[in-house]
Each structure stands twice: as structure tokens, then as C-alpha cells.
TrEMBL record:
Its biological purpose: Potential calcium-dependent cell-adhesion protein. May be involved in the establishment and maintenance of specific neuronal connections in the brain.
The protein's name in its UniProt record: PCDGM protein
SMART domains: CA (SM00112)
Organismal lineage: Eukaryota, Metazoa, Chordata, Craniata, Vertebrata
CDD domains in UniProt: Cadherin_repeat (cd11304)
InterPro entries from the UniProt entry: Cadherin-like_dom, Cadherin-like_sf, Cadherin_CS, Cadherin_N, Protocadherin/Cadherin-CA
Length: 690
């Protein structure tokens, strides 16, 4: 529980403060048994408990002013402790103020001076009396002893304190009364009233009755902020109608507690001439104007003073360059960003004012960006056209800020904007059509051709993979002939190729990137199979079983040049691998026959003898490949008697000549060349049509 009592500060020790037993609801006889104790929170003992009567007594005389000073309330806090059971009670005792202090002046005697020429209404401030009591017991009013020339005026400050002043009501004449003796009385509002007095002595001084006068009293000066130190600001024009020392004026800055004297650090004042000059650099951005108060005091007795007020207004000079602040930058930006996408937020500021502080922001060179004014001194950098990372992977953007001063001042700031790639470019082959050659019968896995594709994108958008599109060659999937390395684009054979079966393949290749969405392109590789001499010549005529011989009869009288027969052979290969030559195998004895090397014609080389036995010839047909392959046939020629008609026919047979053999060779070469060129042209035309 908490108990509250009050006691006047002038009560005698032993006075009753409150009935504890009654207020706590405890029987008197239990107070001692419960060991009632009193504890002061301040540590000082001002009270005691009478256990027999159960009352709280004053232990010593209280002095409210010593305990609580000028506090409007004064309370002492106690704690009562009782045991069995343990209880704690809080006691608060309010100490009531009594009028036990009289007002008192700081000095018992006050000496004032006033010139004899002081005008009625002149005020002489007095010191305030002090009374430590509070409320109505404090100072209530002041009284001044009767005087013909002076009266008392009381002003009340904002905090309620009364301020006494002596007011001159009638002009003075020092020659009549040089000193005035007055009594100032301070009275409090207590009951009974207490008071304090102070003697006031006023000396009337001889006339220095003209103060210095500023002309004009208030002036204004305009000054550029960049003037050099020591520049004359103004010279004060002050006059004093007195003569002699009373006319001599001394100048000083007037600084009050309420008005900071910062201008004293920037301006100097000549105390003799009144010239005001700059003594430190001036900065319009720090302060655009200064109020200077100057006191002009003469050397009279008493000294009189006048006051001059000067306002120095600075003229702004364009001495500050604009500042560029990059508030935010979104880098990288996607290359497919739409026009108007915000890239950066830029702020500008200029400490100058007026036109000197008006800043224009621009991009230093032509770029696909523009500046948009968001609000004053804030801009947004936005895209102003399409971006293409493949043409420019980034931009060094230089922003230039220029003010409107004269001369202009400029600042620039450069920052780098990276362009992020998007998959907007499909892979491209170096050529939509390529030609490759591979030897027939090459082992599976033989490298045929390396495709080359490029993608101007970067990262995964430029990661390429190759594949062969589904296509058929004579109803057989092309993938059974070739495969491709998906990473490097190299085409390999899957099986051995046969020129005699397929001479050219069209392999469609697709390349894809790894972007999203996936982009691709295709190309066609024409793979020409190169012939290999893997087929031996085949004898078409005469056609005889292997190991058998072909029998041919001729007239006995056949003359040289007589055409016996002609060997006809073919070779499945092409080109020079199919160029055939015929020759007789050498024998131990000379044979009366010869074979044409290119045509395969067997003719009589020399006249035959009568009753000549049959001749056995082995004709070998050999191609022109490397290594050369051959085939042979056995011809058995038997001379016999024939009719004249047959003999005549044999004479009519054309005879071969070396020129005829060469012509045949040239015709064969021409025919083969024309055939090859026709095949190539047909393949190219067909590929382009596809």
C-alpha cells in the first residue's frame, strides 16, 4: 500500500505527521511484535515512528528550499517494513512551503549613471531580487521610494519573473542635483509579507549629449562572391555634433548572444576609419547575405554610441561545376529490350543559383539511348532504339552536364553498360552447299568432311550441335552410310562405300544452338565416291568357260593384216581404272599374229606357211589402275583351206594403223570426260533444286 501525508516545513521536531496504525489498519500492540521499521529512500533520517502511539513523527526541522530547491513540488519518500508476515508500505510526505525567507538583492547598493541630457523615458535596468520560497511566497512586486525625477516600471518576462526598471520622468540638471539616492524594496506575497531593500545611487553625468549618428542607419551593399581578400566593402559615414574627445568615434562590431557573429570571421573593421573589408574568401553557396551590426562609440564621458546596420548581399558567380550522381544502373541489359526501357537513374546538382545553377544533361555522342527528365534535376536514361549485342557487346556512355552560367562550366561522367545476349541469331554454315570426296572401300569411321558453322551469339546461345537429317538413298536411310560428330561437325563413314553402286550422296546436315528458343539452319554436303581399281576387266567376247579356249579358224592364205577376231572386254571401274589395253603373252617362239593394244583386234602379222599347225595365243586384257588388274583368254587359231570368197572378204577387211589406235584412245578419253562432267553438273543442279 502507499500512504501520503503533508507537513509544513516550519513544524517543530516531534510533530505528528500521520497515524500509521489507523491508516494501515494494524493494531497498536502488533507494531512492536511485527518489528516495524522505517527506511528513507534518500538515506537521510527526517522522520521516526512512535510504536506506542502508532504515529509518524517529525525527527528534525525541515527546510523545503534546502531539500528541493526551486522545484514546484517537494516530496520525501519512505518505506515501512513489517514482518510476520513481511509487508512493505510506501509513504510519501509532501513538504509544504511556508514564507520563511525574505526577498534579497544580489547587492545591497546599486550605483547607476545617467547623463544630464537623458530624455524622459530613459530606462535604467535594475538587478532582480531573489526569494527561495515558491508560489505566492515568492517575490510579488517592487516599490521605489518617492522621487521627483524617477519612477519604477515593472516588466514581466516570459517565465513570469518581474524585472524592475527605473524610468526617467523629468529632465535632469546636474548643477542642481548631482546624485540621487533612492530605495528599492522587493516584497513577497506571503502572510505576513516579507521584504528586502537595496540602496540605489544615481550619478548625473555631464553632457556628452550628442551620440554618433550613422548616415544612413541601414545600408545595403552588393558584392561578388569571388572578390579577393582585402576588398573594400564600404566605409561607414558617421557624424557626432560634439567637439573634442566627445566627437572622436571608435568603431566595433556589435555581436549579441542571439545573433551569431560569423561575419566577424569574414570581414574586418578599421576601428578608426570605419572601413569594412573582406578578410576571408566569400562563398555564395555557404551564405548569400550577411547582416553586420557596427557600434560607433565616441570618447566622451559618459561615452555615447550609435548603431549602423549593413546588409552585404553576395552576387553569385559561376564558380561551381555541376555534379552528376549515378543513382541506379541496370547492367547488363537484354539486347531485345524495347525502346523506352529504363537503364539508369541520374541526378544532377549545381551549388550555384539562378542561371548558374540551371543544368542541362546530354549524352556526349550518338548512341541508342536518350535522357528523359523525370522531375527537376533528375533524369532517366532509356533505350532509344534496338540493341544488338553482336554489333556492340557494351557501351561506354558518357553523360555531360553543362550549366547556363557565363562562362559555362561542365562535368562529364562515363559508365559502362554491358549488353546481355539473347538467342536472336541462328547458326550459319559457311556455305549452304559443300562438296566432299571419299575413296570407295574406305574403312568405316573414315573422316569425310568437317562442317563449319558459326553463331554470333555467346554462351549457351552459341553452343552448337550437329546432326544428319533423316534422308534416304535408294530407300536406304542416309544414316546407314554416314554419321556426324555432334560437337565438331565432322562427318564419318559408317560402312565401306562402293563406287560402282553409289557414286554420289546428298547428306543434309542440321546445326542447332542451345538457346531458348532453339534456332537452327541446314546445309547439304555432296559426297562424291572416288573410284578405286577394285574390278578386274571382264572379257565379253569371246565368251568361254574358265580354263577353256576359244577356237578360231582362218584361211591358210590369209595375208598380213587379216582380221582373225576381236577381243571385247569391259571394266566396271571408271576413269583411267577402266582404260583397257590388250597384249599377247610372250611365248618361246614367235607367233605370226599380233593384237591391237587399244582395240583388241587380232590380225595376221606375217604370211602363214602351208600345212602350218594351229597356234595357241594367250591374250591378256589389263586395266590402267594402280595396281593394275587383268584378265586373259586363250585363243586357238587353226589355218584351213577356205573358199576364194572368204579369202576375198578377208582382203576387204580394213587394216588397222597406229593412227587409228591413237584416234580410238582420244575418243575414249573424250567420252569418259564428257560423262564425268555431265554427272557432276546433274548432281549440282539436282542439289540446288532440292
Amino acid at each position: 500500500a502507499q500512504l501520503r501525508y503533508s507537513v509544513p516545513e516550519d513544524c517543530q521536531p516531534g510533530s505528528s505527521v500521520g497515524d500509521l496504525a489507523k491508516d494501515l489498519g494494524v493494531e497498536l500492540r502488533s507494531l512492536a511484535t511485527r518489528n516495524l521499521r522505517l527506511v528513507s529512500e534518500s538515506g537521510q533520517r527526517h522522520f521516526q515512528v512512535d510504536l506506542a502511539a502508532g504515529v509518524l513523527l517529525l525527527d528534525r526541522r525541515l527546510d523545503r528550499e534546502a531539500l528541493c530547491g526551486q522545484s514546484p513540488t517537494c516530496s520525501l519518500h519512505l518505506q515501512l517494513v513489517m514482518e510476520n508476515p513481511l509487508q512493505l508500505h510506501r509513504v510519501e510526505v509532501d513538504v509544504l512551503d511556508v514564507n520563511d525567507n525574505a526577498p534579497q538583492f544580489p547587492k545591497p547598493e546599486v550605483v547607476l549613471e545617467i547623463t544630464e541630457v537623458a530624455n524622459p523615458g530613459t530606462r535604467l535596468p535594475l538587478e532582480v531580487a531573489e526569494d527561495p520560497d515558491m508560489g505566492s511566497n515568492s517575490i510579488s512586486t517592487y516599490e521605489l521610494s518617492p522621487s521627483e525625477h524617477f519612477a519604477l516600471s515593472i516588466n514581466v518576462r516570459g517565465d513570469g519573473v518581474k524585472m524592475p526598471e527605473i524610468v526617467l520622468e523629468k529632465a535632469l540638471d546636474r548643477e542642481k542635483v548631482a546624485v540621487h539616492h533612492l530605495t528599492l524594496t522587493a516584497l513577497d506575497g506571503g502572510n505576513p509579507v516579507k521584504y528586502g531593500t537595496a540602496k540605489v545611487t544615481i550619478h548625473v553625468l555631464d553632457a556628452n549629449d550628442n551620440p554618433p549618428v550613422c548616415d544612413p542607419p541601414i545600408s545595403k551593399v552588393h558584392l561578388e562572391e569571388n572578390v579577393p581578400v582585402g576588398t573594400l566593402v564600404t566605409k561607414l559615414n558617421v557624424t557626432d555634433l560634439d567637439e573634442g574627445p566627445n566627437r572622436e568615434v571608435e568603431y566595433s562590431f556589435k555581436v549579441s548572444n542571439n545573433v551569431p557573429g560569423k561575419f566577424t570571421k569574414l570581414f574586418s573593421l578599421d576601428p578608426r576609419t570605419g572601413e569594412i573589408r573582406t578578410k576571408a574568401p566569400l562563398d555564395y553557396e555557404e551564405s548569400s547575405a550577411y547582416e553586420i551590426a557596427v557600434r560607433a562609440r565616441d570618447k566622451g564621458s559618459p561615452a555615447m554610441e550609435g548603431h549602423c546596420h549593413l546588409r552585404v548581399e553576395l552576387i553569385d558567380i559561376n564558380d561551381n561545376s555541376p555534379e552528376i550522381v549515378l543513382t541506379s544502373l541496370s547492367s547488363p541489359v537484354q539486347e531485345d529490350a524495347t525502346p523506352g526501357t529504363v537503364i539508369a537513374l541520374i541526378g544532377v546538382k549545381d551549388s550555384d543559383s539562378g542561371d548558374n545553377g540551371q543544368v542541362h544533361l546530354q549524352i556526349a555522342k550518338v548512341l541508342p539511348f536518350k535522357l528523359v527528365s523525370s522531375f527537376k534535376e533528375h533524369f532517366s536514361l532509356v533505350t532509344n532504339g534496338p540493341l544488338d549485342r553482336e554489333k556492340a557487346s557494351g557501351y561506354n556512355i558518357t553523360v555531360r552536364a553543362v550549366d547556363s552560367g557565363s562562362p559555362q562550366r561542365a562535368t562529364q561522367k562515363t559508365f559502362y553498360l554491358r549488353i546481355a545476349d539473347v538467342n536472336d541469331n541462328a547458326p550459319n554454315f559457311s556455305s549452304p552447299f559443300d562438296t566432299a570426296h571419299v575413296q570407295e572401300n574406305s574403312l568405316p569411321g573414315t573422316s569425310v568432311f568437317s562442317m563449319s558453322a558459326s553463331d554470333p551469339d555467346e554462351g549457351s546461345n552459341a553452343k552448337l550441335s550437329y546432326s544428319i537429317l533423316d534422308s534416304r538413298m535408294q530407300d536406304v536411310p542416309i544414316s546407314t552410310y554416314f554419321r556426324i560428330d555432334q560437337d565438331n561437325g565432322t562427318i564419318y563413314t559408317v560402312r565401306a562405300l562402293d563406287y560402282e553402286q553409289d557414286k554420289v550422296f546428298q547428306v543434309p546436315v542440321e546445326v542447332k544452338d542451345a538457346g531458348s528458343p532453339v534456332l537452327s539452319s541446314t546445309a547439304v554436303v555432296h559426297v562424291f565416291v572416288l573410284d578405286e581399281n577394285d574390278n578386274a576387266p571382264t572379257i565379253v567376247y569371246p565368251s568361254v568357260p574358265k580354263g577353256s579356249a576359244f577356237h578360231q579358224t582362218i584361211p591358210t592364205l590369209a595375208e598380213p593384216g587379216y582380221l582373225v577376231t576381236k577381243i571385247v572386254a569391259v571394266d566396271a571401274d571408271s576413269g583411267h581404272n577402266a582404260w583397257l589395253s590388250y597384249q599377247l603373252q610372250e611365248t618361246a617362239e614367235a607367233l605370226p599374229f599380233r593384237v591391237e593394244r587399244r582395240s583388241g583386234e587380232i590380225r595376221v602379222a606375217q604370211a602363214l606357211r602351208e600345212s602350218e599347225d594351229a597356234h595357241r595365243l594367250v591374250v591378256e586384257v589389263r586395266d590402267n589402275g594402280t595396281p593394275s588388274l587383268s584378265a586373259s583368254v586363250i585363243i586357238v587359231i587353226s589355218p584351213e583351206e577356205n573358199s576364194v570368197q572368204d579369202f576375198a572378204k578377208s582382203l576387204d577387211l580394213p587394216r588397222s594403223s597406229p593412227e587409228d589406235s591413237n584416234l580410238t584412245l582420244y575418243l575414249i578419253i573424250s567420252l569418259v570426260s564428257i560423262s564425268l562432267v555431265s554427272c557432276v553438273m546433274f548432281a549440282v543442279v539436282a542439289a540446288r533444286c532440292l
